[in-house]
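The instructor's notes for this session suggest beginning with a concrete chain rather than abstract definitions. Hand out the sequence below and ask the class to guess, before any prediction is shown, which regions might be ordered.
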Amino acid sequence: MSQKQMKKILVTGAVGQIGSELTMELRKRYGNDNVLATGRKTKPSETLLNSGPFEFIDITNRETIEKVVDDYDIDTIYNMAAILSAVGEERPKVCWNVNINGMYNILEIVHEREMARVFVPSSIAAFGPETPRENTPQETVLKPKTMYGVTKVAGELLGDYYFKRFNLDIRGVRYPGIISSETLPGGGTTDYAVEIFYEAIKHKRYTCFVKEDTVLPMMYMPDCIKGTIDLMEADIKKLKHHSDFNLASMSFSAGELAAEIKKHIPEFKCSYKPDFRQAIADSWPKSIDDSAARKEWGWKPTYDLPTATKDMLEKLGKRYEEGNL
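After discussion, reveal the predicted structure:
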C-alpha cells in the first residue's frame, strides 16, 4: 500500500492533556492553518485558539465530523478524544459511546474519503491482571477489567480490521501514564503523577490516591508527542504492527516520584490514601517491552525520572511565580 502525504490535519480532543500539546507541535511542523483543533465543549486555551483554526464537534455525532472534514479538506486525523479510566468506571456507557462509537465514525469517514492516515491511541489499560506485569510483551493477554481498557482492546482490534480489510493506514500506541506541565489530566488512574507536582509547588504536601509502592509505566509529555508524530511519519513498509505499539519510557513507584520531588523541595511531604483507582493500577503493568516500536520505527525516549522531574518543577515553578498556576 502506498503512503499518502499528510497535508491537512484534524485533531479531535485537542483541548485535552495530550491533544492540546500535540496540536501545537503539529502546527509548528505542518503550519498553523493546516492543523484544525476540535473539542466537544471545554473552552480551548488562548494559545490554542489564537494559533490556528478551532471548531466544536462531537465524535459520537458523525455529521459534525463530516462537516469539518469537508470544510477544511482534511486528509489525516489524530483521534485524541476519549473518556479515560477513572471517569470511564463512573460512566461506562459514555466511555463506550465516545471511545468505540466515536472511533467507528472516524474510521468510516477516513475509509469512505480515502484519506491519508489516522492515529487512534490505545493505552496500558488494554492489559489486565493476567498480563505479565514485568516487561509486558508486545503480544500478550489482553483481558482488562475496566470499561476504558475494554474500549482500548476493541479499538486496537477495530483498527487492525480496517487496515487488513480496507487498506486503511491506521496507527496507534499503547500510552503509559503521561506527565505534562501544560494541561491538567482528565480523569485517569495515573493523574497523581501530575497532581503531585502542582501540590508540591503550591502547598508543599500531597495526598496520593495510590499506595507508596505502586509502580506504573510513565512518560514525560515531550516524549509522548515525539513518539506519536514519529510513528505517523514512519514508512509504512517498515511497520509490522499498526494500532497497538507498546510505548515505554520509565517506570517508578509513587514513593520514588515523591522522593525525587523532595530533592528539589526538601520540605515536601507526601501521604498515601488509596481509593478505587488502586485496584485499576494493580491490574496494569509495572514496566513495558517496547522493542517492536524501537525496531520498526526507531522509537527512543529522551527523559527519565530525574530529568522529567527537574523540567516539570522548573516550568511549573516559573508559572507559579508569575501567578499563572
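Then share the key points. The chain has two domains: 9-177+220-246, 179-218+250-286+302-321. The domain at 9-177+220-246 is CATH 3.40.50.720 (Rossmann fold).
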